[in-house]
């Protein structure tokens, strides 16, 4: 593997040498000119890097990139440098200035260099313009050289050696033209071999190490969505040499001595950093994961993950894992993934099981990434008994219609969503020459959802948390820092009103959101450079190398927080579980207060240092101008919400005296009778009434008492009631209600159908 990486690294830098060598050996009339090509290549590469020539791949929701808005803090692009070099060679060698075969070859080389990196022909075009310009300048320098040599030698011999002077008649022109075609063909063969070899990149291999330092760059896993679709928020680390564009050095496992197979965080790291025990808690909880398309190998991959870390097995056979379609079918599943969602599925499933070993996992695979299909999958997850639902995807909030919005409103079910990876109000679109949407992503921006932001985590060698800050790889504008243009999402909603528990939070007025909903409620690790190691064997594209890899993005923080809710026992009967988090705001025993960084353009830097307010006037709202809607601060703030978990305290309701009830699936269903089931946790006080409501509509109409009362303990107790006189071939709605001295709790509605 190491030899393979070295060979690919050499090819990616010296691809132009065989072309120059072929030209030098075959084009004897211009051998001196070909030998000067390395200087042209070096000049072109220098100009491309110094001028920061790049047109980057668009971030999620490319449909929002209406008009270009200019260039802002762009970094150098390795692919466009190669494109420029290719065009420079072609432009200079093609003395007739006509677009012949050599130009076509250069265009092919340039496009192949960027096809898997930028997915845009813009890099080739930009590189072509620069390369052509340098080629013309090189011609001018060459002509001066010819004039000087002619003056010095003052003879026909000196002139005959100059490739710019035509000494032959028309017949010679035809020979020169044929020679160029021959050179182009030879160069094309050589380039094809090299480009074929360079495609053998192992982007999922362990990171490269140079004298103890690890280097990698980041790849967006899922493609930008079409209007009405969502994209996943997973970012994978790609091994890279230290000299590669966008490569960054980092510490394995964020500084912990416990390192994953690919150099990322391990389940033990997550447990020690956030102070929980994954094997204690989670009984009776079902964590649903909603993603589009099918991952055929997910159960086997989870088995490999569990085996490596010694976790309890979670399979369909032992009832821990179940995979269904958005209609609930276990046999009629969506098409197999071809775009990257299968890696998202591996991240979600393996993260949940590593955090809550006793939680059951329900994977609901939507038919596509459309917001409508994903919403249907969420409804199906709740219908099948999910107590928590993780959603590691999103789109600008205006894309989500009212029908889709209702799918994320299920009282007493924990619905969690990732904030996104494009920063405050998706400002990172500006780095792609696109107009930012100036709005956060949904479903995270919905008031009833637990919105999860992302952090950069630094650990001590023993795996405990050393520090945590807002995740923003864009870097502070006034410093020469790393710029990848990715950061945790968030910002004030343009559509939804903030719930009462958020507006009443201390420090709310400092956010300047008014009455608008603010992402985020809570946060957790998301920086891919402090990401989590997962195992994925499904080859969704030919260039994907199966195995272990480090993955981050807010697609990591969402399943992590969802599983912690499950580990803590779910919603505890609270209609909107996000409200529970705010009751613990400021409690060091329950939350770690993130106070540094920001997810806007300024990255928490003082306004004067990063050009505010002028930048907002020029590019749109890309920073919050010193408010806490995008800058971290003590207490509540937009990027990190109430903070990051410190144990399970933040997920436990302060008022747990009412019974905790869970309606479960009916059993012994016959044409005229059925057995209704549920669990009731008395929470330490005697339950006086326990009743099932049921009927042919959601209004119910009938009731049946539980066969026995659940007592006054502190653990869930199974209860049931047999109902009779039902109508054959009919659908019935039912739910559990229970009352103790401190109040009445009502379970969510479920349905059954008589045969």
Q: What's the number of structural domains?
A: 3
Overall pLDDT score: 79
CATH superfamily of the largest domain: Peptidase S8/S53 domain
Oligomer: single chain
- What's the CATH architecture of the largest domain? 3-Layer(aba) Sandwich
Terminal Cα span: 59 Å
Which ranges are low-confidence, i.e. pLDDT below 50, for 5 or more consecutive residues?
Answer: 52-80, 94-100, 113-120, 156-211
Q: What name does CATH use for the topology of the largest domain?
A: Rossmann fold
Provide the fold topology.
Elements: H1 2-14, H2 16-26, H3 31-35, H4 37-50, H5 78-93, H6 101-115, H7 122-153, H8 156-160, H9 170-198, E1 208-210, E2 213-220, E3 231-232, E4 235-239, E5 248-250, H10 267-274, E6 286-292, H11 298-309, E7 321-325, H12 341-355, E8 360-366, H13 371-383, E9 388-391, E10 393-396, H14 402-406, E11 414-418, E12 422-424, E13 441-442, E14 450-459, E15 465-470, E16 487-497, H15 500-503, E17 516-519, E18 522-525, E19 532-536, E20 547-552, H16 554-567, H17 578-582, E21 591-592, H18 607-610, H19 614-619, E22 644-645, E23 660-667, E24 673-681, E25 689-695, E26 702-705, E27 717-724, E28 731-740, E29 743-746, E30 750-753
Parallel strand pairs: 6-8, 6-9, 7-8, 9-11, 11-14, 12-16, 14-18
Antiparallel strand pairs: 1-2, 2-4, 2-5, 3-10, 4-20, 10-13, 14-15, 16-17, 19-20, 21-22, 23-24, 24-27, 25-26, 25-28, 28-29, 28-30
Helix pairs in contact: 1-9, 2-9, 4-5, 4-7, 5-6, 5-7, 6-7, 6-9, 11-12, 12-16
